Hypoxanthine phosphoribosyltransferase
Amino acid sequence: MHKDLEKILLTREEIAARVRELGAQITADYEGRSILLVCILKGAVTFFSDLAREIKVPAEFDFMVCSSYGDATDSSGFVKIRKDLDSDAANKDVLIVEDIIDTGTTLSRLKPILEDRGAKSVKIATILNKPSRRKANVTVDYNGFEIPDAFVVGYGLDYAGRYRNIPYIGILKESVYKARIL
Ligand code: 5GP
Ligand code: MG
Ligand code: MG
C-alpha cells in the first residue's frame, strides 16, 4: 500500500469486476444504438478508459474540463466549462463518465447544459458515489460503489495533483492534509 494512505478501500480486482458489470449493463441498455462517451477530465480518465473497453456498442469518445465555482459545498455554485466537447451532442445518446459524485453540484449543472444542446439522452456513470454528501439532486444511472464520507485518491482521483496513478482506491492519511496546511 502507498505510504500516504490510511487504508485501501477498493482493490484493483474489485474495481475491475465492477467496471465489467457496469459495461455489461450499459451494453445491454444501449443495444442497437451508438453512444457518445464524455470523460470529465482529469479524474475520470482511468475509469473512462477501463469502462469504454467493456462497452460493446459503437462509442465515440469526447472530453470536457469543468470547474465548480463558489463554495464547493454549495449547490448554488455554477459550473464553468474550461474545455468543451469537440463533437456536437445534438441527437446523440450521451453518457457522462465521472470519477466521483460528492455534493452533486458539477453534474446537476452539466447535465442540463448537454440536454439543452439537443442530446437525445444524457445519462451519468460514476465509479464512486458519496450519497451522504449530496447537496444537489442528481440521478446516477450507473453507480460503481457507494463510499463513506472520506477523502479518497487513486484510480484517477488526486489530492493536489498527486496520487492519480495509484491503481486502486484508498483513503488518504489525515497527516497528509495537515502537513500541507502547516
Ligand atoms: P461534486 O459532486 O461535489 O460537484 O464534485 C465532485 C468532484 O469533487 C469530483 O469530480 C472530484 O474532483 C472532487 N471530489 C469529491 N470527493 C472527492 C474525494 O473523496 N477525493 C477526490 N480526490 N476528489 C473528490
Ligand atoms: Mg470529477
Ligand atoms: Mg481533484
Notes: Residues 43, 68, 98-106, 151-153, 157-159 surround guanosine-5'-monophosphate (ligand 1) (CB under 6 Å). The CA atoms of residues 17 and 113 lie 32 Å apart. The chain has a mean pLDDT of 93. The first strand starts at residue 5 and ends at 10.
